[in-house]
């Protein structure tokens, strides 16, 4: 795309946002057919900053997926899941049969990926404090993921970029799961793939398919995907434990940040490429490795649930505090 086109598109977004009460500030990120920008409300009684996800819609399927993302986000009611303020759709004046969907959400300081990219864990903070921060992130993310599963949804793209944090004076104050663009509805399906009408347990993978049609093209981000997700984008059936595999790889991201940069990158790459942990990682993190190997297990029936993970992380934090107190 040429610079003139991008400038024209930016001007369109600026005007659309202004027409709906928001002042455009800057681009925060982009990927695929969506960008995220920072805006500020120009309403007299609300001058807050917000993050706006702008999605280009060019087909009926794209429209349905975008509406599903909005529907899922509006059903979330948990402090560890991002909140939606409003949304609106504007036709693209320069492109026939193209619309832009604007999803206005609360703004957070960083993603976990941002913290890792900034080598946030490489400061002079004591190692035990860094580990405590990682536990805090894992607990907050587990609470958010559990809420999503209890609402009978599956995130399908759980990764470090989609876990957001607010930081104040070097202390993480809030943790929220975001981005439901690839999320699916849990429905029960029989063995030949037809959606059944009986109740579906969102924590069970035994007869669960995903999405309103009972299956979904391979989704997620390479390196965070479960073994049962078709990496080539084919149709496949899977359950809520696909998010647990992704969560395990997030845990690997965080722990590798505690290692020497070269060694950390090597351990993380091995985990992402092979879906398992190498010996160096296990040597540095023996206890954590036992849990992660359960989370990324090829056998989905052996993976812990989000509820089980939350209990483990909380128990571990309490155990560490008791040791420090004594």
Compile the SSE list and pairings:
Blueprint: H1 3-19, E1 22-31, E2 34-41, E3 49-57, H2 60-75, E4 84-91, E5 99-106, E6 110-111, H3 112-117, H4 127-150, E7 153-154, E8 163-168, E9 171-177, E10 184-188, E11 208-210, E12 216-217, E13 235-236, H5 241-256, H6 261-274, H7 279-284, H8 286-295, H9 306-325
Antiparallel strand pairs: 1-2, 2-3, 3-5, 4-5, 6-8, 7-10, 8-9, 10-11, 12-13
Largest sheet: 5 strands, antiparallel
Order of helices and strands: HEEEHEEEHHEEEEEEEHHHHH
Number of strands: 13
Shape: globular
**What CATH architecture label of the largest domain applies?**
Orthogonal Bundle
Whole-number radius of gyration?
Answer: 21 Å
Estimate what percentage of residues fall within beta strands: 15-25%
CATH superfamily (homologous) name of the largest domain: Transferase(Phosphotransferase) domain 1
Structural class: alpha+beta
- Fraction of residues in H or I helices: 25-40%
Under CATH, the topology of the largest domain is which?
Answer: Transferase(Phosphotransferase), domain 1
* Count of alpha/pi helices: 9
Mean pLDDT: 84
CATH class of the largest domain: Mainly Alpha
Please state how the strands of the largest beta sheet are arranged side by side: 1-2-3-5-4
In the predicted model, the low-confidence regions spanning at least 5 consecutive residues are 188-217
How many domains would you count in the coordinates? 2
In short:
The chain is of the alpha+beta class and 326 residues long. Helices cover 40% and strands 22% of the residues.
Architecture overview:
- This is Protein kinase domain-containing protein.
- This protein has 326 residues and is of the alpha+beta class.
- The chain has two domains: 104 residues, Phosphorylase Kinase, domain 1 (2-Layer Sandwich), CATH 3.30.200; 216 residues, Transferase(Phosphotransferase), domain 1 (Orthogonal Bundle), CATH 1.10.510.10.
- The strands form four sheets. A five-stranded antiparallel beta sheet has the order 1-2-3-5-4, with helices on both faces. Strands 6-8-9 form a three-stranded antiparallel beta sheet.
- A hairpin with a 2-residue loop joins β8 and β9.
- α4 runs antiparallel to α5.
- The chain is globular and about 60 Å long.
- The N and C termini lie far apart (62 Å).
């Amino acid at each position: 795309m040429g610079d003139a086109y991008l400038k024209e598109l930016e001007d369109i977004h600026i005007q659309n946002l202004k027409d709906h009460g928001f002042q455009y500030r800057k681009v925060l990120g982009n990927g695929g057919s969506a960008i995220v920008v920072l805006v500020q409300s120009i309403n007299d009684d609300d001058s807050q900053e917000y993050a706006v996800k702008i999605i280009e819609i060019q087909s009926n399927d794209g429209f349905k997926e975008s509406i599903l993302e909005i529907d899922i986000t509006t059903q979330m009611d948990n402090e560890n899941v991002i909140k939606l303020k409003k949304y609106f759709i504007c036709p693209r004046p320069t492109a026939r049969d193209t619309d832009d969907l604007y999803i206005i959400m609360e703004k957070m300081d960083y993603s976990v990926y941002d913290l890792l990219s900034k080598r946030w864990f490489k400061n002079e903070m004591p190692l035990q404090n860094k580990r405590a921060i990682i536990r805090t992130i894992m607990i907050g993310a587990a609470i958010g993921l559990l809420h999503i599963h209890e609402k009978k949804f599956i995130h399908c793209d759980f990764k470090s970029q989609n876990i957001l944090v607010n930081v104040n004076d070097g202390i993480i104050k809030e943790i929220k799961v975001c981005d439901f663009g690839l999320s699916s509805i849990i429905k029960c399906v029989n063995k030949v793939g037809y959606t059944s009408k009986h109740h579906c347990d969102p924590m069970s993978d035994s007869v669960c398919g995903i999405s309103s049609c009972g299956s979904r093209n391979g989704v997620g981000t390479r390196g965070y995907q479960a073994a049962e997700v078709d990496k080539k984008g084919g149709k496949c059936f899977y359950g809520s434990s696909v998010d647990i595999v992704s969560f395990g790889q997030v845990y690997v991201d965080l722990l590798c940040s505690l290692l020497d940069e070269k060694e950390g990158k090597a351990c993380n790459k091995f985990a992402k490429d092979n879906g398992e942990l190498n010996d160096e990682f296990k040597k540095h993190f023996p206890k954590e490795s036992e849990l992660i190997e359960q989370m990324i297990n090829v056998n989905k029936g052996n993976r812990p649930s989000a509820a089980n993970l939350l209990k483990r992380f909380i128990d571990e934090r309490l155990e560490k505090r008791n040791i420090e107190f004594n």
